[in-house]
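Notes taken during the Thursday session

The instructor put the following on the board and asked us to keep it in front of us for the whole hour. The protein is Putative ABC transport system permease protein. We were told not to look anything up and to reason only from what is written here. First, the residues (909 in total):
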Amino acid sequence: MLRTTLAGLRLHKSRYVTTVLAILLGVMFVSGTLVFADTLEASYEESVMGSATSVDAIAVPEAEEGEDEDGFPLDPVPFGDAVLDDIRALPEVADADGLVRGQAVLLDAEGRAFGFTPPAAIGLGETSRFSASEGELPAADDEIALATSTSSQTGFEVGDTVTVLDPDQDSREFTVTGLVNFGVDPSYSYGGAVVFAQDTVEEMTGASGYSEINVMSTEGTTDEDAAAAVATVTGTDVQTGAEFGEAMAEASGSETAILRIALLLFGVIAMFVAGIVIYNTFAILIAQRQRELALLRCVGAKRGQIFRSVLTESFVVGLFASVLGVLAGTGIGALGARFGGQLMGTGATASLVVSPTAVIVGLLVGTLMTVFSALIPATRATRVAPLAALRTSATAAGLEKGTGWMRVVFGLVAFAVSAALVGLSQSMSPDPNGLFVVTGAALVAFVGVVVLGPLLVRGIVRVIGIPLRRVGVPSMLAVDNSTRSPRRAATAMIALTVGATLITGYSVISASFESTMTKQLDESFPVDYQVSAQYAPDGPATTAGTEAEAAEEEALEQGAPEEGDTAQGTPEDGAAEGPGSGEGAVDEGGAVEGEAVDEETGTPLVPREVEEKLSASPLLDKVISERSTYLDDFTDLDSMGLPVSAYFGAEMGVDMRAETVEGDLDDFGTGKVLLTESYADGTGVGDTITLPAPGGDLDLEVAAVLENGAAFWGAVITPTDFTAAFPSVEEGRYLHIQAAEGTDPAEVREAVYAAVDDYPMVQVMSVAEMKNQFSEMMNIAFYTIAAMLGLAIIIAVFGISNTMALSVLERTRESALLRALGLAKGQLRRMLSVEAVLLCLIGAGIGIALGVLFGWAAGAAILPGLVFSIPTAQITVFIAIAVLAGLLAAVLPARRAAGTSITGALASE
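Then, after some discussion, the predicted C-alpha cells were revealed:
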C-alpha cells in the first residue's frame, strides 16, 4: 500500500500544487514570524548589551522610601561629585565617569520647539557606555551630538548648526559633531536626546549630579568585584554591565513578545484557511477516486489500509510543503527583521536567528494541519464499496447530498444564538469583555454559515443568476454549474468568507473609530487651532554642590551609612535637593525659568502676550483661554485630587460642548460647577461641593454631570468663579482658536504662527492636522492588518483555483462534448471564469455582510457613543478584488480545459 500510495502521488502530483502552495504560505507566515521575532529580539539584546557591556559596572541612584508632599513616591537623588571621586579612588576601579541628565529645548528647522516634551539632554564623560555611531562625541562647549532618532525626525545631520534654549530661554548655537544610537533605551530613543560636553550640560539644563556612573575595573578585577566595591560607596545595588544590559533587554523584550503573539494570531488565521483548502482538496480527490479505491478493496485492501493510505498522502504532501514553507519563512523573517529593526531603532546588525523552535513548529503545524484536515475525507474513503469499481462513472456528484431539515434547523439555531450574543454584548456597558462576547457570536455565526453553506450557495446563485442567464450561453452554463455541487462550492468559498469577514470587520471598526473621534473633536472642540506650551514632566537632576560633598565625605569617614541614609545624602542633612531646586533649574513640572507657569502645579502656560496678539487679529473670531489648576487636597469626591478648569471667552454649550449624563448645560453659570462622570462619585445635580482655593473656599452647586470625553476632565467652573478662587492663574494652559467666517485658511495660519513667533516653546496644533494625523494613523493600522489578512485571502484564492482545476479534470468529457456541440474555446474559458467569479463573490459577499455586522458590534462594545460608519470605498475595493481573484483563480483551469483535445477527451473513460 505504501508503494501504491507514493506511486499515486507521483502520478497525480499536479493535483496537489495549489494545496502545497496553501500550506507553504501558512507555514511561511508562522515560521517567518518566529524567525522575525527571534532575530529582532536578538537585535534588541545586542543593541542594549552592546552599550552596557562596554563598561564593567553601572551604578544608578535609588529613591528614598516615602512620599513627597503630594503623596507621590520620592524621585531618586543624583550622586554628587564626592561619590564619583570616592569611586575613582577604589583599588578595584581603573576609571569612572558620571552621566548628567536633564532636559533641553531643541529648536527644529522652523525655529519651533522639537517634540511634545523637550528631549533628554545628557553629558557624557570619557568612560561611558555610549559612543558615537557617526562622527564624534562633543568635547567643546559649542558642540552637540544628537540621538539617531532625533536626527531622523528633525533632519539635522553631522556638521549642521542647531539652536538650543538654556533655562533662561536664551538661544545658543551648537555644531552637530556626531550621532549616538541609544538603541531601545526608552529614556533617550522615544522622546529624543541630545548630548553635550560634561560642563555644558549643567549650563543648558540646570541639572547637576549624576544619574548614572559608569565604571571600568582594574586589570585582574572581575566585574562582580568592581560592582560590589562601588556598592560600598553608593549604598545602592550596583549591577555589572552585563546584568544592567540583561535587565534592559528583558524589559525591552516585552515589545517583541507582544509583536510575536500578534503576528502568530494572523498565522493561525492563515493556517485555519489553509486547513479548509486542504480539506476541500482531499474531499474532492477522494470522491473522484472512488473507482480506484474500490478496485483496491477488490484486490484485498482493508478499510484500515485505505484510511492509512489517504493519511500517508496527506502526511507526505504536508511535510513537503512545510519544508518549503520553513525555508521561505526564514527568508521572509530575515527581511522583516532587517526593516523592523531599522524602524524600531535596533539597527540591522544582528545575525539571522533560526531557532530549532521556528523550524520544528513550522514543520509540525504544516504537517499536522494537513493530516488533521484529511481525516474526514480519509474516513469517507473507507466507506467506498468494492462494487463501485464496476461503475462506469464515479464522481463527486454521486456524493453530493441535499441539505436535510436537521442541517437547516441546526444552522438557524446557530444564527439565533449568534444574534442573542450580539444583543447581549450591546446590553453590557462598554467594556473589553463585550469584545469577547462579540467574538463568540462571530464564531457561532461561522458555524451557521458552514452548516447552511450549500443552501446559501443555491439561493444566492439563483438570485445572481437571473441577470447572468441573459448575458449569454457561457454565463448560463456557469450559473448551472455553480449549483451542481453546492456543498463543494460552499466549502471552497468559506475560506474566502473568513478572510473577507475579518478584513471588513476591522475596516468597519477603523472607520467607526475615526468617525467617532472626529465627531467628538467637532462637538467638544469646534475650533480651528489649539495653542499650548511645550511641557516637560521631568525636572532636572540636581545636587547642592559643596554642601552635599562635605556631608558625603563626613558620612563616609564615619563608616557605613546609617539605616535610611546613603552616600547620596538625605533631604534632612541638605546633601541633595529634589528636582526643580537650585539656581537656574527648571521649575518642578518642567517649565523653564522665565516661562509662564502655574504657581500651584508648575504647569507651563501660554504667555499672556500670545493671547493678546491672537485676540487682536481680525482674522480670528474667538480666542478661548483654557485656564486650569489642580487641587491635590480636595477629598470631597473620594478622589486624591481634582482638576479644575474654566474657559475664558467661551459660551458653554455653544463654543464648548459635551454630552451630559445628568442635568443640562443651559443651567451652568456663576456659582455652578460641571463634573465629569468619573469624578462625580455619586454627586448629582443640585448637590453642593466646596473647593478649597487660595482666594477662599468656593461653594458650588452641581449644574450637570458630563460624560467622560476628550474635552473636559474633573470640574469646570465659570471664569468669574475661577478668577476669584485662583487669582494667580492669569494665563491659559491651552488657547482654542476659531477663525472668522469667510477668512482664507492660509492667512489664518500665518496670523496664528506670527503671534507665537517670539515664543519658540509655544506649540501650535491645527485641529484639521490633528484629524489628519489620526486618520493617517488609523489607515496605517488598517493597511498593515489588511496586508496580514491578505495572506488568508491568497490562500483562499488558491483553494478556489484548486477546486476549479479538479472540477475541470472531473468534467473533461463534458467540456469536450460542449466543444463538439459548438462552444468555442473563448466561451469555455468565459464559462469557467464566470463560475469562479461567482464563487468568489458569494464568499466575499457573505464575509462583507458578517464583517459589517460584527465590526459594528465589536466597536460599540468597547467604545461608548460609537458613530457607526461603513467604509463604502474600501468595501467596493474588496468586491473588485473578489472579482479579480475569481478571474485569476480560473486562468490555469480554463486554459487547461480549452487546450484539451475534443476527440481525446471523448474517447477517455
